[in-house]
Amino acid sequence: MRIVRQKDFVTGLLYIALGVAFAVASYGYRMGTASRMGPGYFPFWLGVLLAAIGVMVLWGSLRLHAEPEKLQRWAVRPMLIILASVFIFGAMLETLGLVLSLIVLIVGSSLASPEFTWRSTIINTVALIVFAVVVFVYSLSLQFPVWPTFIAG
Fold this sequence. Notes:
There is one protein chain. By secondary structure, this protein is mainly alpha-helical. The chain has helices at 6-26, 41-60, 76-110, 118-139, 149-152, and strands spanning 2-3, 62-63. The chain has a two-stranded antiparallel sheet. Helix 1 (6-26) runs antiparallel to helix 2 and helix 3 (76-110) crosses helix 4.
């Protein structure tokens, strides 16, 4: 047996590591039973399930006779742009509100890929803002400031 698909192999290892970490970290909480779940029940079984999926993905990356696929280089610049957009969104949410923070998040994230045009970015931004406001503010009644504090008062 040899590693044929390096990407799947690394993904499987990551899933296993995260699943085991979740299961171990949740083991300190009270488990309870399936009918009366404690605070550790769901994260424990979610970790076990994630580790099991990782084993299946890792196993699928191994073959006896096949041409191996190499792991491609990571696209670090787009990953950092998306991470920065998410960080800025979280930092701006309280003061600038959901709408302006989402604009920064979506426009900033779209800069990570040359496939996005300005037209598609504007359409995505409008659609996602409407979706987020309807779902999170009106349907779920979450207490997000929709507009900046200096506008909403």
